Amino acid sequence: MVVEKFGLLGTLVVHDGTEPRPVTGPKVRVLLAALLLQANRTVSRDALKEALWGEAVPASADAALANHLTRLRRVLAAAGDGTEERLRTVAPGYQLDVHEGELDADAFEARVRAVRGAHQAEEWEAVRRETDLALGLWRGTPLADLAPFSETEAPALRVHRLTEARLQVLEWSFDAELGLGRHHEAVAPLTALAAEHPLREGFHRRLMLALHRSGRQAEAFSVFHRLRRDLVEELGTEPGSAVREAHAELLAGEPAPRPRATSARPPFQLPCDADAFTGRTAEVAAIRALLGVRGEGTAETAPGGDGGTGGGGGSRTGSGTGSETSGGVRAGTGPGPVGVGAIGGGGADGGPGGLASRTRAVVITGMGGVGKTALAVHVAHRVRDAFPDGALYADLRGYCVGGARTAHELLARFLSDLGVHQDTLPEDTDDRALLFRAALAERKVLLVLDNARNAAHVAPLLPAGGQSAALITSRQLLADLPGSAKVPLSPLSESDQHALLAELAGSARVRSEPEALADIMAACGGLPLALHIVGGRLASRPSWPLALLAKRLTPHQGRLDTLAMGNFDVRRTFAMSYLAMRDSDQPLEREAARAFRLLGRVWSAHPVTPQSAAALLDVTEARAAAVLDVLADAHLVLNPEPDRYQLHDLLGEYAAQRDGEDTEEERTTALVRLLSWYVAALADATLTATRETQSPPPLDGADAAGWALPEFQDDDEAIRWTARELPAVRDALTRAGELGRSDIAWRLAVGLFGHASTHWWTGEWDACLEQAMGIARAHDDRIGQAWLHRRTAVAHGMAFRNEACLEHLRIALGLFTERGDRAAQASILGNMSAVYLQVGDSEWALVHAERSRDLYHEVGNARGEALLLSRIADVRKTRGEPGLAAADYRRVIELVRGSGHGVFLATALTNYGDVLRILGERDAAFASLAEALAIRLRMNDQGGTADCLVFTARAHHHFGEREAARAAWESCLELARRHKLAKRIDECLEGLADLAARTPPDGR
User: Fold this and answer.
1) Are residues 306 and 340 in contact, defined by beta-carbon separation less than 8 angstroms?
2) Using CA atoms, how far apart are residues 918 and 908, in angstroms rounded to an integer?
3) What is residue 372's predicted lDDT score, i.e. its pLDDT?
């Protein structure tokens, strides 16, 4: 039997006798396609050159053509059996010999002729059989990877003819379904095709008949009126005679014909599988395992029936307490592999060799547009052989504006589909559900229930046991659906996004503009729906550069308008979820809809926690947590880790466009509450990190707000929290400036002091202080300027910018003296003491330290006095009084140890270790330095680590430990260069040079 050796119905492939393989090299692919389209006929050299280069044929075309022909012969030789030369030179060009049945396009057209003959004879089973064979040859859009060659006249005409033939075959296949009385089964796929081809009358006519003969007259009339409206608006024409005849049948109200005897075969109602389905490998494997299916359509077996072993690839749950699995599955409770009795789902045959226990229901969850339906249909097609008694499909329309389909009506349909005919069905839904479960008890049926609104919506439709199973899609988590396993879908990975766009628009095209492609993928946020729209636009507009589409997809500049094409519309998809929540009869859901709007308008770029959301929404922390969980369960926010919630980029843009539902005043008030919450949270973080006794006065009213704030166990935790929130704080500072709220802006910048105590070297604090200073000056905010000068001085001092530090300290001292704030004056004088000491002026350092100590004593600040004890110890060390300095440092360490102030303790330990070095107490010195270094490393304090390494290197050098000194200097140098610590770089280079100069010639 001859098998297809050449494939045009999709990407161009050549079969090597084992499997189809793609043809590499764009010119070789075009050359092969041009010859295949004229198989067994001579194609002139000029025609081949035009195919390769269009109108711009280069001067070297003859030589280049010869090279491409040589490469093509190698491809053909590798795929052949070595007995013939397929590509022959025949004047005035070349001929490719292709035997009957070797080209998939020819084989398809032969099958089309067979379908036509069976259709004319009304041999409906033959039509079904030949249709399956014909459509099975398709792998995607013909010549999908050969643009722009495929868009030229002759190839485009062949592609159009093949595509039209495929659609005609599909129409004939539904004539067979209707002829066999399979009206219910035809509705779902016809609905999808009618939506995909809104102006094709053939699909609409057959859908009208299928609905009418299924007893769904109102929907049938709706299809007719929608088609008529679209034809009039788009083409200015009325429906054709065939559609009008179908409409007349509807008007006549003829009863649906009874199924023929030939319709006894099991129902198969699945919509068509997507041509360009891409990725989701782990999820597909996980769902198959949960359904108890392994391989291509074979049921998985496991000894022991429903025991604790067996299962399938990629679906183990660790502790079994709802954790994410490697395959992306979230299970219920109970240890052991998912799908093997761990979830409490379906029953197993039991005994050795029986069918493994399968989960009664697998719920695919995710945000709108993430590809839930496509995945469900894709998997359902691939496991159909494991469910020989049929596949039932229903779109539950859980989020449609017109209302959801009820379990009551669907149970009637499913019972009829399974051949359960009763003169009168029970009126009670529960009674119908019992009848349905009884019908499934001895069958192996797969139910695909699409777009479930909630657990109650779908629960009556589930099998109670046996070997049937349900595959459910929902935007809700359906956490309360018993006996179910969850497969949450995230946006596609970057590689899968790239593959999908390549499949839809052509791989060569997407490779041609990598930067624009990256922008497009970023704009689509990994959503398959958005990517399909983009791919469809590119495919239908071959002359468009990717950069043009990327520009149209710029966030907040018409992106959502661009992400709409026909029935595919990202905004409308999001609206279904949002409107269902906004218009819910549940107060918590309506409150969640408001939160969604505020997040989009006020804070879409950053995560929130229940605490920060409580301030935004002006509710309690518990209520905010409940609201956020409702949004997360509906996949309107992402919940990537516990207690952190964030809008997907596209959802954030949609939420931001809900303009008319909240007033500008309401949004501004909410934003001010959130910014004020950050002020309070940062103040707490700085207090924990620095144990500072002085802090800015609270915002008016903020201290009475009663907001829940983060709780920090120690300075390390406070600093890490601030580092994580830093992007949000930067944005908050900008937003405060836009609102004219200088009082918020400068407090945000000042509140970063705790974070800066270990991260000053990044420059982030400097930038925030500078930005806030500009805002404070613009609003003549004197108290804000005083605090900003005070903290800017600290930033300069940490970076050893001593003159700038003193300048800001002097300005701050004047402003706080003007306000009569003696505690602030004491602190600033203490800082001036430290700077003078840093520049080597011990006299002025001591003067300012004593003035600071006296002021602290006057205002009764004992902790401030302790801090100044450390300053005085620094002065004594500099003045050559190491014994007295050591005693002071020991006292400081005793006071600080156990207080949770790691930075202060590490600084005191470092200085104490250096004094011990001077005193010659080697072991004690290194013990103190080691403890200081451990604290710095634990806190990820890069600048403090460099400080400690410098003192450690000096100590090793002092005690003649040259190799240890060199290692410490080199470690410090690497760290200083990585973080651009200029002073430390100079010190390390000087230390290494001094070490080299003092090393004896023999290296000892």
Assistant:
1) yes
2) 15
3) 94
Q: Are 360 and 437 a contacting pair, CB within 8 Å?
A: no
Locate 136 and state its tokens: 């099975």
Question: From CA 825, how far away is CA 35, in angstroms rounded?
Answer: 89
Nearest CA among 361, 344, 348 for reference residue 287: 361
The predicted pLDDT at position 448 comes to 96
Q: In what order do the strands lie in the sheet with 13-15?
A: 6-7, 13-15, 20-22
Strand pairing category for 469-474 and 446-452: parallel
**Tokens for 331?**
């299970």
- pLDDT per 10-residue tile (average), the chain, 1004 residues: 65 69 76 82 83 80 81 73 68 82 82 88 86 82 72 76 88 89 85 86 90 85 88 82 84 55 68 83 92 59 30 29 30 29 32 47 94 94 90 89 83 86 77 89 92 91 88 92 90 91 88 92 93 89 90 90 86 90 91 94 92 94 94 90 91 88 91 95 88 78 69 86 93 96 96 85 90 96 95 91 94 94 91 89 87 85 73 85 90 80 86 94 94 90 89 93 92 88 88 81 52
In order, the DSSP letters of 500-534 are HHHHHH-HHHHHH-HHHHHHHHHHHTT-HHHHHHH
CB 97 within 8 A of CB 88: yes
Number of residues written out for the chain = 1004
Closest C-alpha to 723, from 674, 687, 757 = 757
Alpha helices in 839-981 (DSSP H): 842-859, 862-878, 882-896, 902-918, 922-938, 942-958, 962-978
Domains of the chain, first to last: 10-99 (1.10.10.10), 182-256 (1.25.40.10), 281-488 (3.40.50), 494-566 (no CATH), 572-662 (1.10.10.10), 668-820 (1.25.40), 890-998 (1.25.40.10)
Q: How crowded is residue 725: how many other Cβ atoms within 10 Å of its Cβ?
A: 22
Give the DSSP letter of residue 423.
S
Amino acid present at 614? A
> Cβ(367)–Cβ(577) under 8 Å?
yes
Residue whose entry in the numeric block shows the structure tokens 């680590």? 945
User: What pLDDT does 348 receive?
Assistant: 32
Q: What's the token pair of residue 72?
A: 């093509």
- How is residue 296 written in tokens? 């291509």
The pLDDT of residue 150 is 66
Per-residue 3-state assignment (H helix, E strand, C coil) for 327-359 = CCCECCECCCCCCCCCCCCCCCCCCCCCECCCC
Phi-psi map region of 304: left, alpha, beta (phi>0 left; psi -120 to 50 alpha): left
Task: Please check whether residue 177 is in contact with residue 185, taking contact to mean a CB–CB distance below 8 angstroms.
Answer: yes
Furthest CA-CA distance within the chain = 113
Helix axes 201-213, 153-179, angle to 10 degrees: 10
What is the structure's pLDDT at 21?
A: 66
Q: How far is CA 345 from the centre of its chain?
A: 30
